[in-house]
Amino acid sequence: MIKAAAEQGWIDEQNVILETLTSMKRAGADLILTYFAKAVAAMLKR
């Protein structure tokens, strides 16, 4: 859903991915499995 909306130009993909993962962590997740793991790791390295 995030990828499709980003391809249409409706959202900023990076910001939505980071916000989604952050909200999961704030909600109490101890572990998050995601298709975006490599992309997030690259974003956080910068």
Protein model, in words:
- The chain is mostly helical and 46 residues long.
- The protein has one domain.
- It contains three helices and no strands.
Could you outline the blueprint of secondary structure elements for this entry?
Layout: H1 2-7, H2 13-26, H3 37-45
N-C termini distance: 25 Å
Counted up, domains total 1
Number of strands: 0
Helix content: 55-70%
Rg:
11 Å
Structural class, from secondary structure content?
mainly alpha
Essential attributes:
mainly alpha, 3 helices, globular, 0% strand
State the gist of this model:
With 46 residues, the protein is mostly helical.
